[in-house]
Every structure is written in C-alpha cells, then in structure tokens.
C-alpha cells in the first residue's frame, strides 16, 4: 500500500522481436482492460503513417533524447536498429501511484533494465509462431528493405536468448487468443493467483517448443 492508502499498481512489460505484433497486442489489451494504462515511450525514429505524437510515441530528436538520458529521466532506454527508445519514470509513476497498472511495450534489452531497476515489474516475452512467420510478417509490413528485414531477423535470434529472464512467454499465433492470454496473466497477477499460469506460459517451455524442429504436415 502507498502512504495514501491507495494500492500501488503493477508495471507489466511486454517485449518481443520486431514484427511479432506487440504494438497491436498491447493496444488491444488496454482497450479491453480498464484498470491498465499504456506507457508512451520516447523515440528518435521518424513517425510512420498514421502515428500520432504523444499517443504512439513521444517523438524527439537525438540531442533531446541524450539530454533526458543525462538527467536520468528514463527508467530504461536502448538503441535498436539505429534509433533510441526509452520509457520515462514520469510515464509510469503517475499511473502506478494512482493504483492503476501500467503496460510497457519495449525492446528486450530495455526489459532487462526494468528488471534490474524495478523488482515489482512482471515481464512477458511475446513470441512469433516461428522465424519463418516472423519474416513473412516483416515483409508484409512493406516498410523495410530486404537488408533491413535480414538485420531484424538476426536481432530477433539474439533477443530470443533473453527469454528465460522473463516471467512469462506467450506466442502471438492468433491475435484474439494472444490478447486473452495476456489479460489472464494481468488479472491473475493482480489477484495473486499466478501458479497455474506461470507453469502454462513458462519461458523455458516456450523456448523449447519454438526451437523444436518443425514437422511438415503429412
């Protein structure tokens, strides 16, 4: 409990390789769970079509981002594909202090920083069904060159090595099912009834299944 008698919220971290669909999943979770807020990250990358400053990201240039780093304004920050991303303390503390849970959609290396700096954070790794499907999704976005897609796949393979640092691993094979699984985790963590879900969504089991040889259909 906080000093004001309001129960502190829980920070939930969702991290995944680029192209897994974490932004879509996280937006759906926030739409369907009224007790959780979305943490808007800072980034130095350019806005994509349809993105809104302050809603999707706080878009800043690199000097401004570096200034915020120097001021220790970020809970976590990382460089990813030549761009900087960060979650400010302010972005999450306001919601948590008011008793709301906060959802952070961040990069894998940023999630490790959160783990080191906030023991109360729950970390969820979002997996694609397979590397082949991840490549197909990246190609389908139509925003990256062939070389960029190859770089993203190389990064994804390295990021998978961090999966056992997380509390849960959920596969995004079908959107509605994936969202339902994340909602079940969030509600169970809030209620303190996590035993079965920690076993069901064990990162070790998820990694074993993901890396198992694919058997072609008969």
Question: Can you lay out the helices and strands and say which pair or pack?
Answer:
Layout: E1 11-15, H1 22-32, E2 36-38, E3 42-43, E4 58-59, H2 62-70, E5 74-80, E6 83-88, H3 89-97, E7 101-106, H4 108-117, E8 122-127, H5 131-141, H6 146-159, E9 168-171, H7 175-191, H8 195-200, H9 203-211
Parallel strand pairs: 1-7, 1-8, 2-7, 3-4, 8-9
Antiparallel strand pairs: 3-6, 5-6
Helix pairs in contact: 1-7, 5-6
The CATH homologous superfamily of the domain at 11-39 and 100-211 corresponds to P-loop containing nucleotide triphosphate hydrolases
Indicate the mean pLDDT: 90
Helix/strand-derived category reads alpha/beta
Note poorly predicted spans: none
- State the CATH class of the domain at 11-39 and 100-211: Alpha Beta
Distance between the termini: 56 Å
CATH-defined fold name of the domain at 11-39 and 100-211: Rossmann fold
Q: Report the radius of gyration as a whole number of Å.
A: 17 Å
Q: What CATH architecture label of the domain at 11-39 and 100-211 applies?
A: 3-Layer(aba) Sandwich
Give a quick rundown of the structure.
With 218 residues, this protein is an alpha/beta fold. It is 44% helix and 19% strand. The longest helix has 17 residues.
């Amino acid at each position: 409990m906080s000093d004001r008698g309001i129960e502190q919220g829980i920070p939930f971290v969702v991290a995944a390789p680029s192209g897994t669909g974490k932004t879509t999943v996280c937006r759906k979770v926030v739409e369907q769970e009224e007790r959780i807020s979305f943490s808007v990250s800072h980034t130095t990358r350019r806005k994509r079509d349809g993105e809104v400053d302050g809603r999707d990201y706080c878009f800043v240039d690199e000097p401004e981002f570096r200034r915020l780093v120097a001021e220790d304004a970020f809970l976590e920050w990382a460089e990813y594909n030549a761009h900087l991303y960060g979650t400010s303390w302010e972005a999450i503390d306001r919601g948590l202090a008011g008793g709301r849970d906060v959802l952070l959609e961040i990069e894998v290396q940023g999630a490790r920083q959160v783990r080191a700096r906030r023991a109360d954070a729950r970390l969820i790794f979002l997996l694609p069904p397979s590397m082949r499907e991840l490549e197909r999704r990246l190609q389908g976005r139509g925003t990256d060159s062939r070389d960029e897609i190859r770089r993203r796949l190389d990064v994804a393979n390295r990021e998978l090595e961090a999966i056992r640092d997380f509390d849960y691993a959920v596969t995004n094979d079908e959107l509605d099912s994936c969202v339902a699984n994340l909602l079940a985790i969030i509600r169970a963590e809030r209620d303190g009834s996590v035993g079965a879900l920690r076993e069901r969504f064990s990162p070790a089991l998820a990694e074993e299944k993901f890396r198992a040889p694919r058997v072609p259909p008969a």
